[in-house]
Amino acid sequence: MAAHTTDDETTYSSSSNSTPSYRFKWDVFLSFRGEDTRHNFIQLLYNELVRNGVATFRDDEGLQRGEEIAPSLVEAIKDSAASVAVISERYADSKWCLEELAVILECKRLMLPVFYEVDPSDVRRQKGPFEMDFRSHEQHVSADKVRRWRDGMSKAGGISGWDSKNWDESKLIQSLLKKILAKLNDTPLGVAKYPVGLSSRL
């Protein structure tokens, strides 16, 4: 089973950022809800990306988080050629994750969604496990910000990605890796501090 490109995916594959792609520091930015995925799927995915020479940004400071996303994370998103959003059951519970997703989509680069044990239609409509989270946010966050977050979830849910319920986990990771490497073959890369495996792609 392979991921298919949709009009939405094409939209978020092209960069509207004025920064030339060859200046990107990171190949991939990982957005995920740590409580759901940090010590299983994300760890396996991160290890496989790094093993294949993909410069991958993973936020490991998830325990001490405030209400606002850290400026360093915004910069990492903007300095990444592509992003993978692993949207799990508690993803929308985190204002931080929702803000990451909004920024990722605003950058209009390749965004690959993984629907991790959730229904893509629930992501698109903010139903199921996400409904109560958004109702809660509406009580404590400005209406404009919540609309922005809803828009991000709707767009992410509309992109053809990977539904974990239909995949063996190892095959899902390999499919993601194949897609990312294909993208990077067509994108001038930033130079990582230790650019393992990049020469063959260049």
From TrEMBL:
SMART domains (UniProt xref): TIR (SM00255)
Keywords, ordered alphabetically: NAD
Coiled coil: none
NAD found in the keyword field: yes
Domain TIR: 24-184
Database matches in Pfam families: TIR
PROSITE patterns the record matches: TIR (PS50104)
Matches recorded under InterPro entries: TIR_dom, Toll_tir_struct_dom_sf
Listed name of the protein: TIR domain-containing protein
